[in-house]
């Protein structure tokens, strides 16, 4: 049982009662304005929980609809519609009392605390939450630029890119080679590329059984490797070839016209090529001075306050605070922790203990999934993993089915938690 | 409640864990007022909401409606004691202090009464 710290309870009964009474009056008098940039999982969750804490919340997101990256490998395999992964902001506006502004933030002034938008308006804030997701480091692979994504999709931000990759896989002839290039750490959704290989193999096995998948990794080992390799041997024998960095020397270039992925030691002709580029924090993180030289945003592990700019918090994939993986679940728990910390600061409510947790369901086939469960806690200014659990490699068929069913239920509940 | 939380097991261990939680509640109970506990319970329940659908309709993951405070507390004690039947709930239960278990159990039980079972 974890001991309660002195700080959590140091206030004692009298002070706690006073602190409870005061913020309710403050809430009624004037709601402090909080702006949230980014309507993905981190931003939408933050907006929802900030509003619940009685704050005046504006969510800034250019797109009218959000397509989840998680579960998009199921769409690629023909197991789920893209529509089922697409979510709007109506419920956040109607039930959550959140102002939704479909615009792009073009500037942030951290001194006067104003966000400028591309529609000409300016928003002032007491606190700003930035949840910008990822951007790609084009140029890390020679020849792979924005134009090249129209031929060799990354499909790592869900939407048109995911549809393009699905069309290419559908059009591919039986016996073709599908090449997936995996970037160096850190990147969004660490198990995602291996799940993609698994589910593409499922699709091929059903529809074009002579096809092959070559996975070109920028690493020599990956997380949950035993679980994936066991499933690949059991479900898709001979279909998936995973090539570590030490074999290929890493992907250096693409020949877009010739359809070839070029590694240091070998060339890989591809009927379909999925290039997942190296990543960094999405805009406006860099423009607002929120990134360090790594390209990511350093944050306080308790409040997710930027270590570089005052009164701005960064959550989700863009933030680096230690061991937490870049996942939607991480973004969701970070958003809540951050919202409670902001409410404590602006409303004078008692600070809540941070509960940072990650769980990811990963599909190996339509009725075959595994999960992990990880707790994190702030240690010496960084988020450290404190508990780690993962499904067993020798799980029964029944257990794998149960995980796949749980995953579907989780998606439904999670989307309600995020988008209302 | 076995339908919602899976098979019963490790009766002796979970009983000990419940008693330990009870002892901790007795110590910390005097420190906080009711409203603060409700806020804490509501915030802690946000952890549950990431997987358990708030209207109790979710497939695959059991709803949290229709459970009383003791059932939730006992279930968390069992999850804390063993990683089967759910590693996710094992990790969650490990992350909660005794006082947090009390807050979230009370909040969920109250909220569950409002929703349909």
Secondary structure topology:
The complex is a heterodimer of chains A (420) and B (117).
Chain A: H1 6-9, H2 12-29, E1 33-37, H3 41-52, E2 56-60, E3 66-67, H4 72-76, E4 86-87, H5 90-94, E5 99-101, E6 105-109, E7 114-117, E8 122-124, E9 127-130, E10 134-136, H6 160-171, E11 177-181, H7 192-207, E12 212-216, H8 225-235, E13 240-243, H9 245-248, E14 251-255, E15 260-263, E16 267-269, E17 272-275, E18 279-281, E19 297-298, E20 312-314, E21 319-320, H10 328-347, E22 356-358, E23 361-365, E24 368-379, E25 382-390, H11 397-419
Parallel strand pairs in A: 1-2, 1-9, 2-5, 9-20, 11-12, 11-17, 12-13, 19-21
Antiparallel strand pairs in A: 3-4, 6-7, 7-8, 10-18, 14-15, 15-16, 22-24, 23-24, 24-25
Helix pairs in contact in A: 3-10, 7-8
Chain B: H1 2-5, H2 11-28, H3 34-49, H4 69-81, H5 87-95, H6 98-114
Helix pairs in contact in B: 2-4, 2-6, 3-6, 4-5, 4-6
Classify the helix fraction of chain B into a percent range: 55-70%
The biggest beta sheet of chain B, please?
Answer: none
**Order of SSEs of chain B:** HHHHHH
So what's the oligomer here?
A: heterodimer
Span from first to last CA of chain A? 33 Å
Alpha-beta classification of chain A: alpha/beta
Radius of gyration of chain A: 22 Å
- The overall pLDDT of chain A, averaged over residues, is 93
Indicate the low-confidence ranges of chain A by residue numbers.
Answer: 1-27
Strand content of chain B: under 5%
Specify the structural class of chain B.
mainly alpha
The tally of helices of chain B reads 6
Q: Work out the number of β strands of chain A.
A: 25
Could you characterize what this model shows?
The complex is a heterodimer of chains A (420) and B (117). Chain A is α/β, with parallel strands linked by helices and 420 residues long. The two termini of chain A are 33 Å apart. In chain A, helix 3 packs parallel to helix 10 (328-347). Chain A is built from eleven helices and 25 strands. The chains are: A alpha/beta (420), B mainly alpha (117). Chains A and B meet through helix 2, helix 10, strand 24, strand 25 and helix 11 of A and helix 2, helix 3, helix 5 and helix 6 of B.
């Amino acid at each position: 049982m974890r001991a309660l710290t002195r700080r959590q309870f140091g206030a004692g009964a009298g002070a706690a009662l006073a602190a409870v009474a005061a913020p309710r009056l403050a809430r009624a008098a004037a709601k402090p304005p909080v702006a949230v940039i980014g309507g993905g999982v981190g931003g939408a969750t933050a907006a929802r929980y900030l509003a619940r804490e009685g704050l005046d919340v504006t969510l800034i997101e250019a797109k009218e609809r959000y397509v989840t990256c998680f579960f998009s490998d199921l769409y690629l395999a023909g197991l789920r519609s893209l529509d089922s992964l697409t979510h709007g902001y109506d419920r956040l506006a109607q039930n959550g009392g959140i102002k939704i502004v479909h615009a792009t933030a073009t500037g942030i002034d951290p001194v006067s605390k104003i966000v400028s938008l591309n529609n000409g308006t300016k928003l002032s804030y007491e606190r700003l939450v930035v949840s910008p997701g990822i951007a790609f480091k084009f140029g890390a692979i020679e020849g792979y630029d924005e134009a090249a994504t129209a031929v060799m999709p990354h499909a790592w931000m869900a939407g048109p890119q995911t549809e393009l990759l699905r069309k290419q896989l559908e059009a591919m002839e039986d016996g073709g080679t599908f090449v997936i290039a995996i970037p160096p750490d850190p990147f969004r959704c660490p198990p995602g590329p291996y799940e993609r290989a698994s589910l593409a193999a499922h699709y091929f096995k059903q529809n074009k059984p002579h096809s092959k998948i070559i996975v070109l990794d920028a690493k020599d080992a990956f997380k949950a490797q035993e679980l994936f390799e066991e499933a690949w041997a059991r479900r898709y024998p001979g279909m998936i070839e995973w090539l570590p960095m030490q074999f290929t020397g890493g992907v250096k270039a693409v020949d877009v016209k010739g359809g070839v992925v070029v590694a240091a030691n070998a060339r890989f002709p591809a009927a379909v090529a999925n290039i997942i580029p190296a990543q960094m924090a999405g805009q406006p993180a860099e423009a607002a001075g929120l990134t360090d030289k790594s390209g990511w945003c350093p944050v306080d592990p308790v409040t997710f306050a930027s270590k570089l700019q005052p009164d701005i918090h960064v959550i989700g994939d863009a933030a680096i605070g230690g061991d937490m993986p870049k996942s939607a679940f991480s973004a969701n728990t970070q958003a809540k922790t951050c919202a409670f910390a902001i409410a404590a600061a602006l409303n004078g409510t008692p600070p809540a203990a941070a509960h940072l947790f990650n769980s990811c369901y990963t599909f190996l086939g339509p009725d075959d999934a595994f999960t992990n469960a990880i707790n994190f806690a702030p240690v010496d200014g960084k988020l450290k993993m404190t508990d780690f659990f993962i499904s067993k490699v020798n799980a029964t068929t029944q257990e794998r089915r149960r995980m796949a069913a749980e995953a579907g239920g989780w998606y439904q509940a999670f989307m309600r938690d995020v988008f209302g | 409640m076995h339908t919602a939380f899976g098979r019963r097991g490790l009766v002796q261990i979970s009983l000990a864990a419940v008693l330990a939680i009870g002892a901790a509640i007795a110590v910390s109970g005097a420190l906080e007022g009711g409203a603060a506990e409700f806020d804490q319970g509501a915030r802690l329940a946000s952890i549950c909401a990431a997987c358990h659908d708030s209207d109790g309709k979710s497939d695959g993951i059991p709803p949290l409606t229709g459970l009383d405070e003791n059932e939730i507390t006992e279930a968390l004690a069992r999850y804390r004691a063993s990683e089967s039947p759910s590693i996710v709930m094992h990790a969650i239960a490990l992350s909660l202090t005794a006082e947090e278990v009390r807050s979230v159990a009370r909040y969920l039980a109250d909220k569950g009464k409002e929703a349909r079972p």
